[in-house]
């Protein structure tokens, strides 16, 4: 260690660490473990009262893992964890994932280095001492050589600013900030705004007991059968027996799951009958495998895309009895270019007498009153409003943290037009700051616990590199950020993803720079990180370590 004061000590009212971690969700928890194992002193801060991040907050009814699922949405750093943890279902419930994370926190004694109920309100780089300083809403002041922003890609709720919404006097909940106490829908008239994953997971659950559910839909969605099922003891045993081979497959896969690559076949290579047969087989089988086993060019070719979109539109028409409602549910964007959604009884919910669809494109919301929502067609009295309106995703939580880098420049200023970054990890002007799952990384397109582990491994190696060479600061040069932005953009532009308005492109947040920021090929991304390491951290600039006396003893 070079910079003074020494780690994990207190001078005046400031605590000093090697590494400060913001966030104690899946990524922040692993950061605590990883850097502690390296012998560094660490402190994590989280506004919540316990670990879990997204799994702590998203307690809405029906919340489940909606990716390829258990038992592979998990940490891989400890074989013992795989040995001792049983997953009950393929699409684990929120509570099951949180129990797993609590087990991890207990097993590795993570909580002793995490301060809960603490919101970090000021984060500033001190050029003289080459340290980050933070201040929290509880009056804590701390400094660290390295800042790890594990703030979550989907953790800053998007709350729509609709006229009168604050006048609504009934219960109002955002799915991403759901209360910890049970919420009863019994006998209530509920309006749900939003039909993304959270709306589509929660609507069928709410409809089971509510007197009435009004679904306020802005954009109809493609959704696929979740096909959740129990995981048997034999299946868990098999997963454990094959764990080493499975890990190899996971590492090689573009999304970080133990799946084969998509077939090397275009949808247009098959006859309409062959295509229909494949789509039907995948639909019956359900789960995220649909997207991982379908033709490779669904998200690339407009024509191929249309074949699957038409298939799903046909399914919606089959499931929903009322033709007028079915037509309102018909999505018209490229399928898979908004976050693919797994559903369980969503389309069927519209066959219930107590569920009504309000198509906001035809019948927009005018305002809220104390007792209801007024759309162009009239007032709908409600007792409860559920905002399933999503998040300021990917970059939103970094902007909310808004660290101040060199010269006091804020991230908001630096990112006013583009989310400049290198490797999805670092930003020039913000030395020794690392982002997890930020823009420019595979983030939400990758198995997120695994992505956090792999990004943390790279950062850990980078810290060792600095220490071995007595370097005090690392940050990307502007040219490498530009080249990285171009690389991310070129991969995305070969697909249909940037052509649809979605939270992937920032289109759900007014005024946000609108473009696709995710590195789409996860496996290639980690090769690129390794290349940069092997080339002595090419694209980065370094500063020698300044000792406290040189820095004026700060
Ligand atoms: P999403 O996928 O961003 O969905 C939000 C939904 O809310 C979506 O249907 C939006 O319509 C709708 N929305 C947002 N703002 C408004 C306003 N002002 N008026 C009407 N409708 C609105 O968020 P989720 O929470 O469902 O899912 C996010 C991820 O969390 C998901 O991928 C899972 O991994 C977990 P739009 O499509 O923008 O027209």
Total of DSSP H or I helical runs spanning 4+ residues: 17
Globally, the shape reads globular
The chain-level structural class is alpha/beta
* Terminal Cα span: 16 Å
- What's the gyration radius in Å? 24 Å
Largest sheet: 8 strands, mixed
Low-confidence region ranges: 1-7
Name the bound molecules.
Answer: ligand NA7
Q: Please give the number of β-strands.
A: 20
What's the average pLDDT? Answer: 95
Percent of residues in β-strands: 15-25%
Query: Share of helix among residues?
Result: 25-40%
What is the topological layout?
Elements lengths: L8 E3 L2 E9 L3 H12 L4 E4 L8 H4 L21 H6 L9 H14 L6 E2 L4 E7 L4 E6 L4 E9 L21 E4 L14 E5 L3 H11 L4 E6 L5 E3 L7 H9 L1 H10 L19 H14 L3 H5 L8 H18 L3 H6 L12 E3 L2 H4 L5 E5 L5 E4 L3 E4 L2 E4 L2 E4 L8 H6 L9 H4 L18 E3 L12 H21 L2 E6 L1 H16 L28 H13 L5 E5 L10
Parallel strand pairs: 2-3, 2-7, 3-4, 7-18, 8-17, 9-10, 9-17, 10-13, 11-12
Antiparallel strand pairs: 1-2, 5-6, 6-7, 14-15, 15-16, 19-20
Bound molecules: ligand NA7.
